[in-house]
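Fold this sequence, please.
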Amino acid sequence: MAWKEKEIEKLYYSIGEVAAMLDVNTSLIRYWEREFDLLSPKKNANGDRFFTKEDIEITKLIYYLVREKGYTLEGAKSRLKTDIELTKKKFKLIERLKKIRGFLEELKEQVG
């Protein structure tokens, strides 16, 4: 998995924390926020962004489509507008399969 697995435990995360989860720059997340209507974290009076669990999931979905699947931004936007539920299901399935693979690789190292 390209990003660091971290369980979402808090109500709000800073843009720096989200960037660290995905191992990307904060500027990329701000850019995606301007490009994708679905991504709209809350902002305080100072303009600091606060990401909810749903915002983080959408950010991961954008990362998956653009960085892992190779979609263009327009292609990713179109995919999210036309069939976001199916895309979410596929993404979650792939996440689970990657976790299982990681577990099996760890098990193989311990046994062998």
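Residues 78 and 84 are 9 Å apart (CA to CA). DSSP finds four helices and three strands in the chain.
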